[in-house]
Amino acid sequence: MSDTRISVSVQAEPFDVGSLMAQLRAAGVGGIANFTGIVRGGNGLSALEIEHHPRMTQATLEQIAQDAATRWPLLALTIVHRFGRLDLAAPIVFVGASAVHRAAALDAVAFTIDRLKTAAPFWKREHFIDGKSAWVAPRPADHASAARWG
Amino acid sequence: MSDHRSIRIEYFAKFREAMGRSAEDVALPTAIGSAGMLVEWLRDRDAAGRATFDDSVHIAVDDVMAQAGTSLDGATSVALFPPMTGG
Predict the structure, then answer these.
(1) Which of A38, A132, B14, B40 is packed most tightly, with the most Cβ within 10 A?
(2) pTM for the full model?
(3) Are the C-beta atoms of residues A74 and A105 closer than 8 Å to each other?
(4) What is the predicted ipTM?
């Protein structure tokens, strides 16, 4: 077992990147890498809705975090993923890792977000200004990104 | 010995919409012994099942990701969902 400090949260509420970064910083020094996914506008999008499998998401994200902590020497790893209706420019997901050296932190964040996109049971639905809505189709590029980690 | 058993099937995202419900309790013939056989049974059951479940279906048995060959022995729930699009 690694002694990485792992924190996973699946929540409807917004999150504050600053306080999440402060928690990672408190776990130790060296370097912190992070990724924040944001609802992007354009193409007539008015909002994003995220459905999930409530009994599976937390455990799946914890497993992904454990996998990352096994692959790289991390001091801490944080995953936050939201569900429900999200407005344009709202934060969707946060992944942050702290490590003694930058390569571990950077790679762990990339691995975690790549794996999360294809393995954690979340589904996005796009709502448009004209009242229509549609489920987001899986992107082949996301699967290619996830596959590169083996 | 009963030749059927009760199992709960849950549908998510576009599968939930296509089936018109989020879950149902079914009497599953005991001959349907694997997760993949359950999907085939749903496809054979009615037009909605046939139109909904294709090769993209992801399966979880009792909240654990499963394969087509995963046994349903002792299982109480099966979740069916499309490819994930989170992040």
Answers:
(1) B14
(2) 0.94
(3) yes
(4) 0.93
